[in-house]
Amino acid sequence: MRRRGYWHIGLGPEVGIIFWAMVFLEAAFGSYMGIWPLWIERLGAPVPVVGLVLGSSGLLRLIFLGPSAALGERFGTRRLILLARTAAGLGLLSAALATHWVQLFLMVLGAAIGELAFPLVQSHVASHAGRDRVRAFTLVFTVGPSIALFLAPLLAGLLVWQWGLRAAFLLAAIMTLASIACFARIGCQSSPGVQVSRATEPSSYRAAFADVSVRRVLILQGATVFALALGTSFIPTFLEDVRGMSAARIATLGAGAALGSTLFGLTVTRVGRLQRAPFVGVAIAVSCTAIGFLLFVGSGLPALIAVAFVLRGGLFSSWALFSAALGEVAPEVHRPRAFALGEMVAGSAFSFAPMVAGPLFALKAEAPLTVAFCLALVLVPLLLRTHMAAQRHEVARAAVQPEAV
Q1: Which stretches in the chain have pLDDT values below 50?
Q2: CB-based contact 72:101 (threshold 8 Å)
Q3: SS3 breakdown of the chain: % helix, strand, coil, rounded to 5?
């Protein structure tokens, strides 16, 4: 009986199956992430249009993420997740078959629909993880996916070297199918959080955003994701155009970002102080990513670029920490919409950043990395200051509670 439980790594069957679903989902993303800008450019798009295609899914995300919580309550979490990820898989197949960059709109549309699953999955994990929510979030949304993001680019790089860029999108479609098979095994019933929201006061986006703690996390999350995504958006194009690297080598080196996310996630699961201080963890991740930006700009040595890719993993580490923070501070009745807001804010920032990075890159190839480094320097002290303010708030609240009792 004990051996049967090993597959869910101590998370329980309901959260454990989501762990594996997220592994395959991020493997799909990692299969094409490193060469996605190159594929758009290869299909005839100029550099500014590459940035537009990369960021256009952000506008579509808002259309589908907005009603995600209400749709999940009405039709069920599992059914909606399966539909969303099926649309993403079909989009990947269309990208593999595309012959002109305009045809990639189907990929952008499918990816935008597929993003609808993320707030539903996050809310499901938050409702079923029990008290050890930060650890569960770190394992499900950082450690497992990061391992997949490390291995998938290695396999994708081999396939790209052998059969060309289209092979990466076919691999991503296969991984998406595997994730759908895992998601099909999660519970049919609504999560406890959804049941609570039905039984008590109705939830709304305005009410969720009105919560001071939720609003603080959302604002910092949007600013952080935008700053880091601004620097990372055109790294593959920068390495190909400026450093003269091949697409296969870039895809392979891209696995270093996942290694960085994995190491950081494992550190968080081991160090209790980082679990209790997510803003400090984000500040460390931002600092590491900023150092990576300097290495990309300052050196063409493969070894240093590999290190820079490892440090680049701070982007997704910080994103996951913000999601865990939302799970902690959001009231249960507003949690599904808080996660939807988090995905809308962070996803929009992640998608808008390439639109800004494109013109900057056209002006000077190093410009997006340099501007992102400067923004990171501003964010680090702001994150640390926010951490200290949050600590003072916790101390004040703990001092008032005994008196209330």
Answers
A1: 1-3, 189-199, 403-405
A2: no
A3: 85, 0, 15
